[in-house]
Amino acid sequence: NAGVTQTPKFQVLKTGQSMTLQCAQDMNHEYMSWYRQDPGMGLRLIHYSVGAGITDQGEVPNGYNVSRSTTEDFPLRLLSAAPSQTSVYFCASISTSGGARAQFFGPGTRLTVL
Amino acid sequence: GDSVTQMEGPVTLSEEAFLTINCTYTATGYPSLFWYVQYPGEGLQLLLKATKADDKGSNKGFEATYRKETTSFHLEKGSVQVSDSAVYFCALSAISSGSARQLTFGSGTQLTVLP
Predict the structure, then answer these.
(1) By the CB < 8 Å criterion, does B40 face chain A?
(2) Measured between CA atoms, how close is A81 to chain B, in angstroms?
(3) Under a CB-based contact definition with an 8 Å cutoff, are residues B33 and B73 in contact?
(4) Residue B97 confidence (pLDDT)
(5) Taking CB atoms and an 8 Å limit, are B44 and A99 in contact across chains?
(6) Which residues are CB-contacts of A53 (< 8 A; sequence separation ≥ 6)?
(7) CB contact under 8 A, A107 and B44
(8) Which of left, alpha, beta for A89 (phi over 0: left; psi -120 to 50: alpha)?
């Protein structure tokens, strides 16, 4: 049981390049999310999914696309990278056991856009 | 909208000192409350949680009590260790957050424990 996995761990892009951040979970959770973490701002929600085929926008969705073709995978796409997207990105998978909505986080992807 | 306000950091303590990290929240309805911990270079890990008023979450010597009257969820530990050095995030999950499954985070508090 690997939990939530993310690849790559580090990435450097040039402005205008595109890339996909991968996220996978093996806990059969329906709910998954993408956050970005910036200094002094905590984590901000980019996009989330409540199940395969269903996605929605979070607090800061501009510049990012997502899709959810399977329960396990929830990739995040940057279509045209900008320096403002330099951040650490975390994927999370959400459990509803125990009556509380605890989230399990991946190890993160540190992205630098030059 | 929902929001979480955390005690400003960084916090530096000596080993075996008492720790309090303040957290207050604003939310409509009855949110669930969480504390997450992030060790250097790692993702966030759930530390403890509480789902209703007066609940006390506890784990690894850390405790926090859900206080609805003061809208607070302060994190405490009686005797910190060097290994507790990390960033601590308070968070809430509420129906009003667009989706009941999403979290609103505080800005985080960096804790450093010196030997």
Answers:
(1) no
(2) 23
(3) yes
(4) 45
(5) no
(6) A68, A69
(7) no
(8) beta
Q: Summarize pLDDT for A31-68 with one digit per residue, the tens.
A: 899 999 998 778 899 999 988 999 999 889 999 999 99
Facing A42 at nearest CB: one of B34, B98, B107:
B107
The residue count of chain A comes to 114
Q: Classify A51 in phi/psi space as left (phi over 0), alpha (psi -120 to 50) or beta.
A: left
Per the CB < 8 Å rule, is B102 touching A45? yes
Which of B34, B51, B99 is facing A50, going by the closest CB pair? B99
Two structure tokens written together for B47: 């530390």
Contact (CB, 8 A) for B93 and B103: yes
Residue with tokens 């995040």: A76
Residue written as tokens 């320096």?
A83
| Separation of alpha carbons A76 and A33, rounded Å | 10
Give the whole-angstrom CA distance, residue A110 versus residue B41: 10
